[in-house]
Amino acid sequence: MLFFSLIITIQSCIEPQETFSKIPSGSWRGVLYLQDNPVVVDDKDEITYGQDVTGQLPFNFEVIYDNDTTFHIEIKNDTETIRIDDVTFGRTKSLAKDTVGIHFKVYDTYISAFYEDDLLEGYWHVNYRENYKIKFRAKHGDNRRFILPANDALAADFGGRWSLIFDQGTEDAFDGVGVFRQDGNHIAGTIETETGDYRFMEGSVSGNKAYLSCFDGAHAFLVESKLLEDGTYSGLFYSGNAYVAPISGKKNPDAKLKDSYSMSKPSSDKAAKFESFDSNRAPFSLDREDLRDKVKIMMLMGTWCPNCKDATEFLRELSKKDEMKDVAITSVAFERYRDTSRVFEQISTYKSKGNIGWPVVLGGYYNKMEASKSFGLIDTIKAYPTLLLLDKSNVVRHVYTGFYGPATDQYEGFKSDFYSKIESLKNE
Predict the structure, then answer these.
(1) What is the pTM of this model?
(2) pLDDT at 41 over 90
């Protein structure tokens, strides 16, 4: 009796463990390995962290169970939370392993990984790029982003605006503006370019080095940087595993880029003609009856483009205003497939998943030179998204290239100015 009483007493002191039917809920630390063969750096002053290995993009996510058997995932980038409901779980018979699929259907990408012992291991796949995949690994119970030395209490000041140059000294060089917020060792912000911003980036500062990352299902951005003795900025920018560029620059509170309204121009001062097919393959024309005598917004975009998603959210917010009931919105999709059947499938999914309440129509292939010729309403397409404002007579009056979204400090000013231009066209 004493033995059984002791067992009951011990068991009553043990807190029941959390149960889960598939993978554990809570915090996970994911890593995308942007280099198949990680570079180990001998020079300790190089831009490295942890075990002196560069090219590793960390991101954080939560697994949240909606009921006993169904869960969703929330990816965290600074102040942004991205909910992913298209998650699958199963078991491969051939390998006898549990498999998790995280599907970013709006962007036509997915993660496929094996689960075992609180670890996920697999790849992030991008369907619209041939044989494109990046190694992925995630560990449960870790909410850190970059794993940095614990003794770096003093951090260099990366906060503020920075004039940046990518690929300086080459024919591919382009300008950027870094906009960073720093609180101790924590850093967040974005990089603006003339074609848009790099969305919500987050990371850490260690000594004179800073690391920022962003993963949202389409973008896989990593910045590894340091401040030199003269206060200038030096770093590397990774976009997936296909592009790495050096960055250099200096702090400049007045840093700015070209005016987004000056980069592309209307092709004509006469009424624009545009005909295509919408996501249901029904004919679409600017001349149709329900669009007559309305100011029109046309967004040139791609379903693969996160900045376009930010612009879509802006247009959705705009469309809810009572004053906008006589303004027509159309998204024109330029896709990475030439197979029109696949394109229509993708834009239909994009419209449905995004709860888009206006037409999404076929524009063509995403190549900017090719798209500029086929679209024809403006002299050149330099970025996705590009926003066109047409007056009631279908004349293109304003062209806004790129998009500075909610991750930037220009977003509120852009919204106010764009709305003002719409009101001016409405009152003509």
Answers:
(1) 0.86
(2) no
